[in-house]
Amino acid sequence: MQVEYEAALQRALDAGADVLKQGGSAMDAIQASIVLLENDPHFNAGRGAAFTRDGANELDAAIMDGATRAAGSVAGLTRIRNPVTLARRVMTDSPHVLLSGAGAEAFAATQGAETVDPAWFAIPERRRQLDELLARGGGAFDVDMKYGTVGAVARDVHGHLAAATSTGGVTGKRWGRIGDSPLIGAGTFADDRACAVSCTGSGEQFIRVGVAHEIAARIRLAGEDAATAADAALAEVRALGGTGGVIVVTPAGEALWRFTTPGMYRARATSAGLREVALYGEGEGGGEA
Predict the structure, then answer these.
(1) With contact defined as beta carbons under 8 Å apart, do 173 and 157 qualify?
(2) What are phi and psi of 60, to 5 degrees?
C-alpha cells in the first residue's frame, strides 16, 4: 500500500513540475497536481472522499494566486468531479470567492464543469471507516483526520506563488460542516510578498488560528523565516488541542513542510534537482525551489 501512495505522489509531483519546467504558471502547476490527486481513490479528495454521518460525500476546495491575491473556493459539492477546477472558475469567472452547495453546483453548470454521479466518489474503504466510527455510537467523528486531504504549493519562473487544497472533509461530519481547506487564510493562502501555504489537519483548530495567513503574516510583518513561522503556527494549533501539517514555498524558492503528526504524505521537487517523496519521519524539511 505504501508503494501505491508513493507512486501517486510521484505522479502528482511530476504533473506540476512538468508545467513549471515548460515555463507555465504556478497556478497551472498546482491545479495539474491536485486534479490527479482528486482522481486517485487513495486520498481524501474527490474520488475517495470521506463519508458524512449521513453516508454522503461532500467535497471542498480552494485555490489562490499569490501575484494578485485572487482566490476561489467551493464547499459541499456532491457532483463535481474536480472541485479544484471549479474553485479556480469561481476565482476567474465569478465576482465571489466562496460558493457552497447547490449554489456552487448551479454555478458549475454555467461553466460546463464535468459532473459525475455521486456514487463515483464513494469507495468501500471510506464506507468501512464510517461504519467503524458509527459503531462507537454517540456523537463520534474522526477527530484524528487521518485520511488524506491534498494540497499543493508552487513558485514559477516569474517568481509568482500559488496554493491549492482539496478535501472530502472528515469522516462522520454532520450538519454541512466545513473545515479549513476551502477557507482562504485558514487552510489555503498565497501572497507573493510572503509565501504560499496549504494545510492539513484538525480543521476546527486550523480555522481558529488562521494558520495559512498566520504563517504569511509572520514572514511578511515579523520577518520570521518560513520554518520558524510554520512551527509557531502549528504550536498555536497544538495549544488548542489540534494537530496537522503544512507545506510552504517562499518567493526566494524555499520549499518546506512542517507537521506535528506521525507522518504526512508529501513530495517536492526543486530547480536545484531535489526530488523527494516521503510518508513518515520527522516533521521538518526544507529545500530551495
Answers:
(1) no
(2) -130, 150
Instruction: Please state whether beta strands 254-259 and 284-288 pair in parallel, antiparallel, or not at all (unpaired).
Output: antiparallel
24-33 b/e with 16+ CB inside 10 Å = b? bbbbbbbbbb
Q: Which of 126, 258, 260 is nearest to 197 (CA)?
A: 258
Contact yes or no for 31/84 (Cβ under 8 A) = yes
Residues 270, 289: Cα–Cα separation, whole Å: 4
How buried is residue 288: exposed, middle or buried, by Cβ count under 10 Å (0-12/13-18/19+)? middle
Q: Tell me the catalytic residues.
A: 149
Query: Which residue do the cell numbers 512551527 mark?
Result: 231
Check if the beta carbon of residue 188 is closer than 8 Å to that of residue 164.
yes
CB 121 within 8 A of CB 86: no
The more confidently predicted of residues 285 and 281 is 281
Residue 24 DSSP SS3: coil
Residue-level length of the chain: 289
pLDDT tier at 153 (50, 70, 90 boundaries)? Answer: very high
Cα(80)–Cα(61) distance, integer angstroms? 11
Q: What is the phi/psi pair of residue 148, to 5°?
A: 90, 40
Q: What is the CA radius of gyration of the chain?
A: 17
Q: Put residue 169 in one of left, alpha, beta given phi > 0 → left and psi -120 to 50 → alpha.
A: left
Torsion of CA 77, 78, 84, 89, to 10 degrees: -60
- CA dist 164 to 188, 212, 238, Å? 6, 11, 23
From the list 130, 124, 120, the residue with the least C-alpha distance to 82 is 120
How far apart are the C-alpha atoms of 91 and 289, rounded to whole Å? 26
Q: What is the pTM of this model?
A: 0.95
Q: Average of pLDDT values for 269-273? A: 89
